[in-house]
Amino acid sequence: MKTNYQQSTGKKSLIITSFALFSLFFGAGNLVLPPLLGFRAGDLWWLVTLGFCISGVLIPILGIIAHAKLQGTLFDFAKKVSPTFSVVYCYLIYAIAIALPSPRTASVTHEMAIQPFWDSPSLLTSLIYFMLVFVFVLNRSKVLDALGKLLTPGILIILFIMMATAVFALDFDFVPSAMGQAFSSGILEGYQTFDAIGAVVVGAVIIISINLKEKYASFEEKRRLIGKAGLWAGIGLLLVYGGLILTGALFGDAFDADISRTALLRGISTKTLGQTANILLSILVSLACFTTAVGIVTGTSDFIKGRLNDSISAYRITAFLGCLLGVLVGQFDVGYIITVAVPSLMFIYPITIILILLNVVPEKWGSPKVFQRVIGVTILFSIPDFLGSIGFGQQISPYVDWVPLSQHQMGWVLPALVAFIASNIINGKETAASS
């Protein structure tokens, strides 16, 4: 006889969870990143795709798997280092989220849907945009959630038509790549998706949803469901990102070399779909950007509210300040916001990636001491990449050139791996000695 859980799950449950995960990561801002990456990569598009999907697909999906293992909140991701560190980490994550990806959605909206049709300043766009965001955050409208469920399928249909048109209509003649470090460039560009941060911030929403819907499921059954859904969501992201990078590479000689990200996406959609479909894509992307901004501001406000004894005033003040910051930053163009984001990402992303990986490994390999040592080493070796991103590369170069992968802005990778292995060896010896 089948259990209640078995009766309530199956293909439908897997499809719903997979689509929810995909929608969680597939933000409209991410659309503007892959085409330009492929455009610049030329014949090395496959190599940048591999790098981009490691940081933009694999790591975020592992973040969801880590959430399934923890069954907790963002605080639980870093509490093994120390409660104080975890609180500081949470504040940093939410500060970055509300200061960069949220305003970027307004900038994408202006460049995709306003600038091509109306001669209005970006400040006006961001002002109206975040006034509406503030209204929706205060009212938590269910209409927005329903709208969000319709936007992703609509965008995907248009994108797949655009990519298919490019793949089947154009010759596979690629411009020679001018990238010297295609693989690492793909990884670093994947940072800009903010998907690893998204995985640790809102991944718990998926867990809560599954717990509510699958009340009779055991811990292992839910883990299997999330694992399969993560695999299918990852395949979907891989197809979309890979297709967009390939499409950008196929148009390698069709646009000016210094074209912006939004202009390239708009130009490709016009050439493959025509002007009418391009307008529809612009509208859909703008609406999807809006839902993303509302989600970020709401999530940040909820966090501050929770830290201050569920204060409604704290929620409203945080929402207002988040929208005010969105107006100020959102008036800048997408390229500028992406450039400004680099230093913070060079510091916080390695920590986030390591926290995800440490929470995925078996418990015996992820003791508090391992967390503390590996995160400490990661922070230490992320500092040169951070300093390099703010203009001190030449000054620190003589001191860090000996670190493997430092020339690729990933000098933290091997030291973190060595710290992980060494910490587990030390722990093993200490355990053996105590017994």
UniProtKB/TrEMBL annotation:
Q: Which InterPro entries match?
A: Brnchd-chn_aa_trnsp_Livcs
Please indicate if the UniProt record lists NADP as a keyword. no
Q: Which UniProt keywords apply?
A: Amino-acid transport, Cell membrane, Membrane, Transmembrane, Transmembrane helix, Transport
Its subcellular locations are: Cell membrane
User: Which Pfam families does this one have?
Assistant: Branch_AA_trans
In the bilayer, the protein is annotated as: Multi-pass membrane protein
- Membrane-spanning residues: 12-32, 44-68, 80-100, 120-138, 150-170, 190-210, 231-251, 279-300, 312-330, 336-358, 370-390, 410-427
Family assignment? Belongs to the branched chain amino acid transporter family.
Name of this chain's protein? Branched-chain amino acid transport system II carrier protein
Protein species of origin: Flagellimonas halotolerans
